[in-house]
Design goal:
Elements: H1 46-64, H2 66-81, H3 88-97, H4 102-114, H5 120-133, E1 151-156, H6 163-176, E2 181-186, H7 191-204, E3 207-209, H8 217-230, E4 235-240, H9 247-264, E5 270-277, H10 281-295, E6 299-303, H11 313-321, E7 325-329, E8 337-339, H12 342-350
Parallel strand pairs: 1-4, 1-5, 2-3, 2-4, 5-6, 6-7
Antiparallel strand pairs: 7-8
Helix pairs in contact: 2-3, 3-4, 4-5, 5-12, 6-7, 8-9, 10-11
The chain binds guanosine-5'-diphosphate (GDP) and magnesium ion.
Magnesium ion is lined by residues 163-164, 187, 193, 239.
Length: 351
């Protein structure tokens, strides 16, 4: 197991068996039973494992958000730290600069300054938290698209935003959770895109279904779904092209993939994640809206948070797009994909 191992995937150690009654006294040099070793020590418990993982992910998120923490977050903290009364115009300006969006920033400030129960900083923080935690969802878990079928996830978005990389990271994560994952190379627009996914499949130890360049992407997904059903896979993730000759072509193709899935698996519940490059900010959000209108999105993966100080885009996505952020990308390594945890995110910005 190379890069990381999720505690949930670990076989639980057998409960200690009572020693059989010994008639002879045990020899003095008996070796203690070999205990599996984990990062958090041999003292295994699910709660400890979970806490250790959350702590590691919290640290990773803080590191990944370093630019936003020292930019957007630090500016807010400084503005609040200056005295009894907040300069609300400045707060609003900082929120807008952090890519929260003009209308949303204004409404956050308006609500926060009316609150009598909290000081200004806590009031803004509470408003931001409310935006991202309203949906009350826990971490994303792939659900079968139909009874007995794998979960199906289409990954869509503009070229270069990090779709293929995100799929590689997610495949590794789900594999480590103990799921059988199949990848479909349905970005057939460039041969290099298929090769890139092949490398990620090898790296993550997952299976790949690919056709040649320029093949029909819907046919690739159809074959991959066939394979996934035949092999009893838990999750099928399809990479898609981010660029075709026209935007209409692109949306048509995504719709065609959806129709093909429905043909193979009538009534299938398909997840569609939009990969949004955080460095493109409000522009990326506009692209997400176009995709949402055309194909219907069920989640957003916000990539390259490590490369921008404008982490405030998260709040704009949840509010303006109304689609939950499911994962955040904080680097190019396989372990640099974290489940989006609203409270942890706000805390990483402020604390
Ligand atoms: N810094 C950083 N780079 C990323 C992240 N996700 C993807 N990338 C990089 O973005 C570039 C484009 O990624 P790719 O997956 O090929 O994008 P695609 O065209 O949407 O499939 C690559 O150089 C990736 O390594 C991230 O979370 N952080
Ligand atoms: Mg790609």
């Amino acid at each position: 197991m190379p890069f990381f191992r999720r505690p949930g995937a670990e076989p639980k150690p057998e409960p200690a068996q009572p020693e059989p009654a010994q008639s002879e006294p045990a020899p003095a040099q008996v070796q203690p039973p070999v205990q599996p070793q984990y990062a958090w020590g041999a003292d295994w418990s699910a709660e400890k494992a979970d806490a250790a993982r959350r702590e590691a992910e919290r640290e990773q998120l803080e590191q990944g958000l370093e630019k936003s923490r020292t930019g957007f977050g630090a500016r807010l903290r400084t503005a609040f730290g200056r005295g009894e009364t907040a300069d609300w115009d400045e707060i609003e300006e900082i929120l807008i600069t952090g890519d929260v969006g003009a209308a949303l920033s204004m409404s956050i400030v308006e609500k926060a300054r009316k609150r009598r129960d909290l000081d200004p900083e806590a009031a803004v923080r509470a408003e931001l938290e409310a935006i991202v935690s309203g949906r009350g969802a826990g971490p994303w878990v792939p659900q079968p698209a139909a009874p007995g079928a794998p979960a199906i996830l289409l990954v869509v978005g503009v070229n270069g935003t990090g779709k293929t990389t995100t799929i590689g990271k997610l495949a590794a994560r789900e594999k480590a959770e103990g799921r059988r994952v199949i990848l479909a190379a349905a970005d057939t627009f460039r041969a290099a895109a298929i090769e890139q996914l092949r490398i990620w499949a090898e790296r993550s130890g997952t299976e790949l279904v690919a056709h040649k360049q320029d093949a029909d992407p819907a046919a690739v997904v159809y074959d991959a779904l066939d394979a996934a059903i035949a092999r009893g896979a838990d999750l099928l993730i399809a990479d898609t092209a981010g660029r075709l000759h026209t935007k209409a072509n692109l949306m048509d193709e995504l719709s065609k993939i959806r129709r093909m899935i429905d043909k193979r698996l009538p009534g299938a519940k398909v997840e569609t994640f939009f990969v949004l490059d955080a460095t493109t900010g409000q522009n990326g959000l506009a692209q997400a809206k176009a995709f949402h209108a055309a194909v219907g999105l069920t989640g957003v993966v916000l990539t390259k948070l490590d490369s921008t100080a404008k982490g405030g885009i998260v709040f704009a996505i949840e509010r303006d797009l109304g689609v939950p952020v499911r994962f955040v990308g904080v680097g190019e390594r396989v372990e640099d994909l974290l489940p989006f945890d609203p409270q942890a995110f706000v805390a990483a910005l402020f604390d």
